[in-house]
Amino acid sequence: MHDGSGRIEVRQLSKNFGSVRAVANLSFTVAPGSVTGFLGPNGAGKTTTLRMILGLVTPSEGTATINGMPHDKLGNPARVVGSVLENEGFHPKRTARNHLKVYAAAIGVPDRRVEEVLAAVGLTEAGDRHAGGFSLGMRQRLALATALLGDPQVLVLDEPANGLDPEGIAWLRSFLRDFAKQGRTVLVSSHLLAEVEQTIDQVVIISHGQTMYYGQLADLRNAQRPRVLVLPSDHDALSTALREEQITEIEPADDGRLAVMNTSARLVGDIALRAGVAIYGLEERHADLENLFFQLTSGQYTAAPPQQLGVPPQHPQDKGNTGWGGQR
Amino acid sequence: MGRLIKAEFRKILSTKLWWGLLIIALLVAGTWAGMLSSVFDDLAAELSRSEVMRLAGVRLNEISFSVLFLTRAINIATIFPMLFGGLAIASELGRKTITTSFLTAPNRAMLLGAKGITYAIWGAIYGIAIIGAATLGIVIGSGGDHLVGFSTWLAIAAAGVLSCVLWTLLGLGVGALIGSPVGTVIVLLVYGLALGPISDLVFTGMAGGDANVAGALPNGAANGLTGSTAADTLADEIQANATGMSKVSSELLEGFQDTARLAAGGLGSFGLLASAAIFFAWAMAFLALGLWRTQSRDIT
């Protein structure tokens, strides 16, 4: 039997579809009581990974367990894990209520549970309508209701915000936070960091099927080095003057600007004044998670991995697969 | 397992496919049986010209020819439980509801086992309803003449129900193997309505009416399952009723049985038990293949 911990563990997970390597040697742990964001651009392997965790796709290598067991050894799995997957189906001519009754029977929960979950997602009134007539947002709510039928300990959601209106997204956020506060586990995927930034504690960022970053969101935010974007009259003169002040990390940026790392706008301005270089624009950039996310996942970020990042203290065993671009 | 079977029943009963197909099956079985009974004269005339009849001095009125129409009607109506079974897994794959079905079952083997049991039961429900409709059609069509005796009827009814169950499971396997509802319906219809019957005809033509490879194919074996009972019944009745039976050589009687089996729709089939065993093996083979494919299929 499973250990009841509510922990999801993914170890050296790989999946090949023919010659396409969808997921490559992915490892991470999702601890109970937290909301973990599973981030990456479309096609990064998020959905495949989630489906391997849920036993829908057979891994080529590695293991994915919930409560220490693969999905098909959980006994009555819907009691342990509920999921909202993209592209999950409803029979268009079956009513929402009947859809839930089918799976209530399969899980072995009484029919009154159907009314409870319908109420929980706000679909009580629409319960006797055919799922085929539902909007995308209503379908997502019905999928969530189905996931909640077995009162599971773990929730896995694949792009749940798709099709939800802003009100629905806000509702989902507070729902997931409450769910995690009860000591339960949430793993939620998204291709937009901003969409889940306010909801998640921990983040797994993948690109091209590989882990790019795995750790606390707060660490990621703190690790972002401040940058100054400056538009000088003479690029070479300013670069030389900055290097004389031991400021050496200078890169060309967009719009003819220079990006200067690990400094402040004030310092750059003072140095420019002393060097007699006119400044037409000066801007300080702080932690921009979306930008960082883009850098991590665009495959163009080539800086050396900062080793202090990426490992939550309780899981030192995963060190080998963490950090920024550690596997590139 | 009980929970999953209950869930499968709820799945079936909460949409309209089951009664849509059932109503058409009943109409086809009833109409087919009724029509054949009412054009019985032609067939009777032909059979009465046969040498067996003439030599044996059998009077047609004493022979329960309606068994032939019963089996014919059953054979054509089995198309519908076959389609019903075919859509069991294929439509779940097509509509992606299989995802939730897998996620709420302890494992795939148990879900597929529950589906097999549920659809076997539904195959029997279809079978019983089809036999009822076909019987009613014959009673109306023949106006009460040449009706079969109860024990014969029961034997054919049992064979018909078994045939429906096996067709349902065969369809389920084919659907699971193909994985698309449209593809499944097309393949099953093309085989059940065209390829199966035509190949039976061709093989039987080549074999000069004897039992042949057609009887070893799914369609031929299934028709033999129902048709053999009818053919044997007719042959027995003729033997029992015939006044000049001594004049009928065993060779001739065998030839008559082949003709009767032909009339009952069991072209080139082997005997009842052999046909049942062959068709059972086909149904189980397709079921096993389909379930194996579903067991290993990645649900993306």
Structure description:
The complex is a heterodimer of chains A (328) and B (300). Chain A has ten helices and 13 strands. Chain A has 328 residues and is an alpha/beta fold. Among the domains of chain A are: 143 residues, P-loop containing nucleotide triphosphate hydrolases (Rossmann fold), CATH 3.40.50.300; 61 residues, Alpha-Beta Plaits, CATH 3.30.70.100. The C terminus of chain A is likely disordered. Chain B has one domain. In chain B, helix 2 runs antiparallel to helix 5, helix 5 packs antiparallel against helix 11 and helix 6 packs antiparallel against helix 8. The longest helix of chain B is centred in the middle third of the chain and has 35 residues. At the A-B interface, helix 1 and helix 2 of A face helix 1, helix 6 and helix 7 of B.
Rg of chain A (CA only): 24 Å
Distance between the termini of chain B: 25 Å
Oligomer: heterodimer
Largest sheet of chain B: none
Total of helices of chain B: 13
CATH fold assignment of the domain at 8-80 and 152-221 in chain A: Rossmann fold
Please trace the helix and strand order of chain A, writing H or E for each element.
Answer: EEEHEEHHHEHEHEEHEHEEHEH
The coarse overall form of chain A would be elongated
Main β-sheet description of chain A: 6 strands, mixed
- Largest interface: pair, residues per side: A-B, 40 and 29 residues
Structural classification of chain B: mainly alpha
Shape of chain B: elongated
Helical region count of chain A?
A: 10
CATH superfamily of the domain at 8-80 and 152-221 in chain A: P-loop containing nucleotide triphosphate hydrolases
Low-confidence region ranges of chain B: none
Helix share, percent of chain B: over 70%
User: Could you give the count of β-strands of chain B?
Assistant: 0
Radius of gyration of chain B, rounded?
21 Å
CATH class of the domain at 8-80 and 152-221 in chain A: Alpha Beta
Helix content estimate of chain A: 25-40%
